[in-house]
């Protein structure tokens, strides 16, 4: 799907060809995000992964899709009515298509989970010899995705959760820089998007180097949610240039959830933040680990690496409390006992 009126500058790193002497050339990676295929963060990460010799593809939304979580929205029309983010795709272009300068870079007019699936289920099987995808990386998002709140909210993390559920190891990255068009973004080594790309690629390199084979990159049902600190040109201290990873957890004292705020003067609603015993509680995993919300904001030049699972069932000792039918006293028994209507299978909800 090429269209001649789309002129995008060649990325310098496209010149690095894959070759059989590079041990990474047999590892296929899909890059996606929610800030669109034209954002500086994703283009920089794509380039950096290519420099390492990976077989990299980008399948990312045509336009900004922040806050769409794991929703699976597909194109509604055959052609783009508003064009691509930052004018990167002309109005009227097909709802999916390829960068004129790189046949591994594609946009899709849908949410991140859908754009990634366009790669997995359409483009790679049909156009790229049905290559096996070893890893999905999503981001880096323009803004942190911290705390358990993000698992339903973040489009970046939504694509990661979806990939993990498909049995593909996946990492979501989020940073703290702003929305920028890649073609106009700084090429300085001190630009946050370039520092983020290096840090994110470093974590991929570690996983790949330590894996025995494809199946040991990450365990089934397990993904990573990584938040990158303020760095380079968005770091007020000017100190953070080489980001170090540290294991963290999503819950903890600094983990927030959203609430609704109402302004009496303007009569407007806006999202506010709160926390609760539930947002702080460690019910799963290693409770010794520090809280990612604290680490990324206050610990300096560390990337928080939280290990997540798509098995959302509560752990047994917590779930045991829910066996209300066998117990006399519970604080949270439902007030109404209804009956379950028959479930009609539908892929949409
Ligand atoms: C092949 O990959 C190796 C290892 O990364 C690199 O040193 C070499 O320059 C590459 N060769 C070509 C022709 O790209
Ligand atoms: C990118 O830079 C060009 C040339 O300065 C300018 O015309 C264009 O509006 C900029 N695009 C964006 C999205 O900032
Ligand atoms: C819409 O996209 C299709 C390809 O999907 C293309 O053939 C057609 O020309 C486009 N229509 C318009 C009005 O641009
Ligand atoms: C791609 O490979 C998968 C797994 O081996 C297989 O199930 C599928 O049929 C293949 N699809 C195509 C289009 O060849
Ligand atoms: C790629 O090949 C190397 C050996 O060169 C092997 O160790 C590694 O497991 C392979 N990776 C994948 C994803 O198959
Ligand atoms: C409500 O909105 C007004 C006007 O924007 C602002 O000045 C005021 O600080 C807001 N009040 C609160 C409690 O946020």
TrEMBL record:
<comment type="similarity">
    <text>Belongs to the SurE nucleotidase family.</text>
</comment>
<dbReference type="GO" id="GO:0008252">
    <property type="term" value="F:nucleotidase activity"/>
</dbReference>
<feature type="domain" description="Survival protein SurE-like phosphatase/nucleotidase">
    <location>
        <begin position="29"/>
        <end position="250"/>
    </location>
</feature>
<dbReference type="InterPro" id="IPR002828">
    <property type="entry name" value="SurE-like_Pase/nucleotidase"/>
</dbReference>
<feature type="signal peptide">
    <location>
        <begin position="1"/>
        <end position="17"/>
    </location>
</feature>
<dbReference type="InterPro" id="IPR036523">
    <property type="entry name" value="SurE-like_sf"/>
</dbReference>
<keyword id="KW-0378">Hydrolase</keyword>
<keyword id="KW-0479">Metal-binding</keyword>
<dbReference type="GO" id="GO:0046872">
    <property type="term" value="F:metal ion binding"/>
</dbReference>
<dbReference type="Pfam" id="PF01975">
    <property type="entry name" value="SurE"/>
</dbReference>
<keyword id="KW-0732">Signal</keyword>
<dbReference type="InterPro" id="IPR030048">
    <property type="entry name" value="SurE"/>
</dbReference>
<protein>
    <submittedName>
        <fullName>YALI0A08217p</fullName>
    </submittedName>
</protein>
């Amino acid at each position: 799907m090429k269209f001649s009126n789309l002129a995008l500058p060649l990325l310098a790193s496209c010149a690095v060809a894959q070759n059989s002497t590079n041990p990474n050339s047999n590892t296929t990676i899909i890059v996606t995000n929610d800030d669109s295929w034209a954002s500086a963060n994703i283009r920089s990460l794509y380039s950096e992964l290519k420099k390492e010799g990976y077989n990299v593809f980008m399948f990312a939304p045509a336009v900004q899709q922040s806050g769409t979580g794991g929703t699976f929205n597909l194109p509604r029309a055959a052609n783009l009515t508003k064009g691509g983010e930052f004018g990167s795709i002309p109005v009227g272009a097909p709802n999916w298509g390829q960068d004129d300068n790189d046949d591994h870079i594609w946009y899709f007019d849908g949410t991140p989970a859908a754009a990634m699936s366009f790669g997995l289920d359409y483009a790679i099987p049909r156009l790229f010899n049905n290559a096996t995808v070893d890893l999905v990386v999503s981001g880096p998002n323009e803004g942190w995705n911290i705390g358990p709140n993000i698992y339903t909210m973040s489009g970046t993390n939504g694509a990661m959760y979806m990939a993990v559920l498909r049995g593909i190891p996946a990492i979501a990255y989020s940073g703290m820089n702003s929305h920028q068009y890649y073609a106009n973004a700084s090429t300085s080594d001190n630009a946050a998007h370039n520092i983020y790309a290096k840090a994110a690629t470093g974590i991929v390199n570690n996983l790949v180097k330590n894996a025995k084979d494809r199946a040991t990159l990450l365990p089934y049902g397990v993904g990573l949610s990584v938040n990158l600190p303020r760095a380079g040109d968005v770091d007020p201290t000017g100190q953070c240039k080489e980001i170090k990873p540290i294991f963290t957890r999503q819950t903890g004292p600094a983990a927030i959830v959203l609430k609704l705020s109402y302004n009496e003067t303007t009569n407007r609603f806006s999202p506010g933040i709160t926390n609760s015993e539930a947002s702080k509680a460690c019910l799963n995993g290693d409770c010794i680990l520090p809280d990612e919300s604290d680490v990324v904001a206050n610990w300096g030049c560390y990337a928080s690496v939280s290990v997540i699972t798509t098995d959302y069932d509560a752990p047994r000792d917590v779930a045991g409390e829910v066996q209300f039918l066998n117990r006399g006293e519970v604080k949270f028994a439902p007030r109404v006992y209804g009956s379950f209507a028959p479930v009609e299978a539908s892929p949409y909800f």
